[in-house]
Amino acid sequence: MKLYEIAPEKKYRKSKRKGRGVGSGRGKTSGKGHKGQKARSGAKGGGFEGGQMPLMRRIPKRGFTNVYNIKYQLVNVSDLNRLTKEVSVTPKIMKKKGLIKNAASPVKVLGYGELKKKFNVSAHAFSKSAKEKIEKAGGAVEIVGKA
């Protein structure tokens, strides 16, 4: 270690010591002013904007969020051709081979492309065309669990 490699000690800002007498500049009311909601302990500020219409009421609202919507991870039939020696294809194998990102989330197989190999595919959902193409290639379709 050389003299020029030595860094100065990290500086820390001292904490404000409130309520330590009038002479400290932060005594008596400790920077909270006199009375009122925000002077009380445990006060949560915000929300009230005087007589003005609050922001959350001014912003237009549109649509709704369907809480029962299922977000599937999509895999095309043509993507299954990338698999080499698997006979049965499950979401775990799809995850391992990089076809999907999460093995725990529901998977839906779609019918885009052609299937050149025979696979027994397990997924949460299948499109009609995907089911036909897998069975036409000599494979089988198995629906796994609830989506």
Keywords:
147 residues; alpha/beta; 3-stranded parallel beta sheet; 6 strands
**Residue fraction in strands:** 5-15%
Q: The biggest beta sheet, please?
A: 3 strands, parallel
CATH class of the domain at 73-143: Alpha Beta
Low-confidence spans: pLDDT under 50, at least 5 residues?
none
Could you give the order of the helices and strands?
Answer: HEEHEEEHE
Largest sheet: spatial strand order: 1-3-5
How many helical stretches? 3
CATH architecture label name of the domain at 73-143: Ribosomal Protein L15, Chain: K, domain 2
Distance between the termini: 61 Å
Q: Helix share of residues? A: 10-25%
> Structural class from helices and strands?
alpha/beta
What's a quick, concise take on this entry?
With 147 residues, this protein is an alpha/beta fold. The protein has helices at residues 55-58, 91-96, 128-136, and strands spanning 73-76, 88-89, 107-110, 120-123, 125-126, 140-143. The protein is built from three helices and six strands.
